[in-house]
Structure formats: C-alpha cells, structure tokens
Design goal:
The protein is of the alpha+beta class. About 35% of the residues lie in helices and about 35% in strands. The strands form two sheets. Strands 4-5-7-6 form a four-stranded antiparallel sheet. A three-stranded antiparallel sheet has the order 1-2-3. Strand 2 and strand 3 form a beta hairpin. The longest helix has 17 residues. The protein is elongated, with a radius of gyration of 26 Å.
C-alpha cells in the first residue's frame, strides 16, 4: 500500500508542477475529466484522461496482481504427531504458477518433517482440481502426508 501511495503522490506532484502547461477550456460540463493535457515535450501532450488510465493500471498492477506475491496459499492441519493434511489454493488473479502446487506441498512437508525430527515424508493422497466459481475460478490441491523416521526408509 505504501508503494501505491508513493506512486499516487509522485503522479500528483508531476501534475501539479505542470499546472502552468495545462491547456483546455474550463469549466466543462460534459465530463468529470476536463479536456486538458500536460505539455511534456514540444511534440507530446499527455491528456488527463490518459493519466487516469495510467493510474488505474498502476493500481491493478501493484495491488491486485502483485508479481512478487506467492501464487499459492497453504493451510496445514496436523493430524497427530506424524500426519498432516494440506489444502492449497491458488490466488484467482495470478501471473503463472499453475504447476507449482506439488512443489509448494513438498517444501512445506519437508519443513514439517525437519521441525518434528523426522527424516522424510510420504504423500498418501494428492489431488488437484479447479474451483469453478462464476467469478474468478482458481486451482486447488489437497494432500495427506505421513512423516517417516529415517530408520524406516532403509
């Protein structure tokens, strides 16, 4: 949110500094956005309606589709000392990562095995599906894992 506020503040500063170069007719009763522009170079004028579109796209990129955010959320339910159940949900608006569910599960199961003093894990059940909602369907995965002691693996 701080990045977005900074971007909006920067855009406002640029717009305010260019107030002397805004051209157009005022008051205008046809639209909320005045038919005006900011003369950036001698040959290019940035119209205010374009600035609104740029601000909207920036908002979407930095809040809705954050490319640095994880694509999967994982919910772990521990079923005793050596068992766990996982439910993974892919965020509905993403920039890839459709085949990462098993890798995310493997990293979390391996970390749980280390935390609990086990040597490894074994996936008992794994299934993927698509939650077909009307708005923004998304991928899901469910798995049951058992933690295994090192001597059992030999």
């Amino acid at each position: 949110m701080k990045r977005l506020s900074g971007a909006i503040l920067a855009a406002l500063c640029v717009a305010m500094s260019a107030c002397s170069s805004i051209s157009g007719t005022y008051p205008r009763n046809a639209s909320i956005i005045p038919d005006a522009g900011i003369q950036l170079t001698p040959s290019y004028v940035l119209h205010l309606d374009d600035l609104v579109v740029i601000a909207g796209i920036s908002y979407l990129v930095y809040t809705v589709v954050d490319p640095l955010a994880p694509n999967w959320s994982i919910q772990e339910t521990r079923l005793g000392d050596n068992r766990a159940s996982y439910e993974l949900t892919m965020k509905p608006i993403n920039v890839g990562g459709a085949g990462e569910a098993k890798q995310v599960l493997a990293r979390r199961a391996e970390a749980l095995a280390r935390e609990r003093g086990f040597g490894s894990y074994q996936i008992l059940r794994y299934e993927e599906s698509i939650d077909s909602r009307i708005w923004l369907p998304h991928r899901t995965a469910r798995a049951d894992v058992v933690l295994v002691h090192p001597q059992i693996l030999r």
